[in-house]
Amino acid sequence: MSSIPSAATTPVANRGAITACIILAVIMQALDTTIANVALPYIQGSVAASADQINWVLTSYIVAAAIMTPPSGFLAAKFGRKRVLLVAIVGFVAASVLCGLAQSLPQIVGFRLLQGLFGAALVPLSQGILLDIYSTEERGSAMALFGVSVMVGPVLGPVIGGWLTENISWRWVFYINVPIGALAFAGISVFVKETRLDTQAKLDWFGFGMLSLGIASLQLFLDRGGQLDWFSSGEILVEAIVCASAFYLLVIHTLTTEKSFINPRLFLDQNFAVSMLFIFVVGVTYLASLALMTPYLQSLMGYPVVTAGIVMGPRGLGTMVCMFVVGRLIGKVDTRILLFIGLAITAWAMYDMISWTPNVSQWTIVSVGFVQGAGLGFLFVPLTTIAFATLPAEMRGDGTGLYNLSRNIGSSVGIAVVSALLIENTQVIHASIAAYVTPFNHAFQAPAAAGLDPMTAAGRASLDSIVTLQATIIAYMADFKLLMIMSLAVMPLVFLLRKPKAPPAIDHSAVME
Fold first, then answer.
1. Are the beta carbons of 109 and 56 closer than 8 angstroms?
2. What Å distances lie between residue 195 and 90, 134, 144, CA to CA?
3. Most CB contacts within 10 A, which of 40, 126, 169, 366?
4. d(CA 161, CA 155)
5. Which domain holds residue 471?
6. Three-state SS annotation for 143-158
7. What CATH number is attached to the domain comprising 408?
8. Which pLDDT score, from 0 to 100, does residue 60 have?
9. Contact at 8 Å (CB) between 56 and 105?
10. Above pLDDT 90, what percent of the chain?
11. pLDDT in tens, 272-299
12. Are 4 and 50 contained in the same domain?
């Protein structure tokens, strides 16, 4: 993996205009990580997708972004950072329009893949430009502004997405990128200068290809497994074999090639290796729980899409607030303590959600969502600090790309797993409860059971609706419990992290997106 090229910091004309345009590009990309969530039930109805298939709209974007983030530095060095950034903006906006025009599930999933491929470079390249135009003393403030723009997505995404879906159409959650992208493109074209090209820049294409093939086949395996009954399907067997083979070849290639796509020396650093597992779990709990909440609020609780977006917004607000608070605590409080607190808060939020039913109050949803977001805020900055604290400076560029990759894979895998478990557990629990629904059960002979007679068609229909609802609620509880257990399971790993001697020279926002 190649690090992003960096020019010497010198006084820059139109720095404010450059900053504004860069922030617009970052906000556009950050919004798309969450803005489509609240519109998923509406998209599902428009493209005739099942409950498990519609999550491909989320996972396809994340997987594509995960694959294309690491080589963004190589592309910038080879073809010029400004040129690559402009192509990324145009491609991202074009793919957004195509998503809005999509008429079928394969179309919207394919166009979301394009969105992820083009959008992957927006954050790292935008950050590189900001680092170049601000002096060393000013970079802290610049990166704080950059971090806020990255976190705008989780805060405003559900709210804006809900309003657009309710008042115009779900297609406008994608069309909104057109004016934002146009402004960013125009500003960057006029004010940003091109970097020098590195004609000697090279990419380990075999390693990149094997990693991409492994991630893509793993995601297909997880997304399609539940639908095709896992290993009873020939397609799933092929995907499992391709995934295992690709990762095997990647490992062998990495260990035997002098300059491989993944630097194996990164894993010799204990803090970085442990943090890779941590950030994977953070990725799972962050977006997987968000993907669960959308259908829970709209399908089970009957919330209008705008209301669902508003009650989900405080989760991102909690993350943003705590990131600022924790940023001030770094260096004053042991980062391992902050990590432990973050995991404990996240686990508690999931524990509370296990007891939820469709009768849960809006205040509970808002407050627990804020607490869960606060837990993630306690994890982001300390985890970045300790992950790179003992890593040599020349390896941090490679480390940042791999770190982001792990989080993105965690997000896509988490969404796929909890979605598959939700469908499977609902079916299993429905069958278990339905076994007690017989004409011979005395409970149905009581006066209170009027209208629920298993001997009549109307009674059976009412009973099936009730049983399905109960089975779905219990299945959601099982998913929330799994996310809680994952948060608790990584807690002991805190003790494997070594306390850094001094804060590392890396900005925390580098790994937010």
1. yes
2. 19, 16, 24
3. 126
4. 11
5. 262-513
6. HHHHHHHHHHHHHHHH
7. 1.20.1250.20
8. 85
9. yes
10. 18
11. 889 888 888 888 887 788 888 888 888 8
12. yes
